[in-house]
Amino acid sequence: MPIDPAVIGTRTPAFSTVAERGRLRFFADATGQHDPVYSDVAAAEAAGHRDLPIPPTFLFCLEMDDPDRGSFLTGLGIDVRTILHGGQRFDFHAQAYAGDTLTFTTEVKDVYAKKGGALEFIVRATHVTRGDTPIATLTSTIVVRDPKAGQ
Fold it and tell me: Domain limits of the chain?
């Protein structure tokens, strides 16, 4: 089923979440970030931060806190068993810290097909803000496989 290009420009409802210290410490440990600036508040402050800084890719983890994260694909009639991760990019504007309340707003930037429609691509940009301050733009590409292609 082709994805209607009219979906370009649509936005999902914004949601907010708090970056908690415990999750940041766990993430830093799990990803091998052994610099104490990511786990020890005193070390972070000594390095000039006001709290534990959020590692760049942790924003993607916080994006998963969206209470309606599956509704976008479901609303398009896409079976999640047919999707693949196609790419990801992070553009940073300001540092975020433990304790910050961050708001995520996602917009569809593009849709296109390849291989005669066997693969469809959805490019989405998620804008992360702290109040009025832009923190980052997370761009992700979802690949949707047509399960009937090649049959």
Answer: 5-20+53-145
Whether the Cβ atoms of residue 136 and residue 90 lie closer than 8 Å to each other: yes
**C-alpha to C-alpha distance for 64 and 60, rounded to whole angstroms:** 7
CATH topology for 5-20+53-145?
A: Thiol Ester Dehydrase; Chain A (3.10.129)
pLDDT tens for each residue of 27-75: 999 999 899 999 999 999 999 999 999 987 899 999 999 988 888 888 8
Question: Can you give the pLDDT at residue 133?
Answer: 97
Q: What is the mean pLDDT of the chain?
A: 92
Q: Looking at the predicted structure, is the pLDDT value of residue 111 above 60?
A: yes
**Of 16, 21, 22, the residue nearest 102 (C-alpha):** 16
Q: If you write DSSP's letter for every residue of 66-100 in order, what string do you get?
A: -TTTTHHHHHTT--GGGEEEEEEEEEE-S--BTT-
Distance of CA 123 to the CA centre of its chain: 12
Pair of tokens at residue 105: 């707003």
Q: Give backbone dihedrals phi and psi of 120, rounded to 5 degrees, phi first.
A: -115, 145
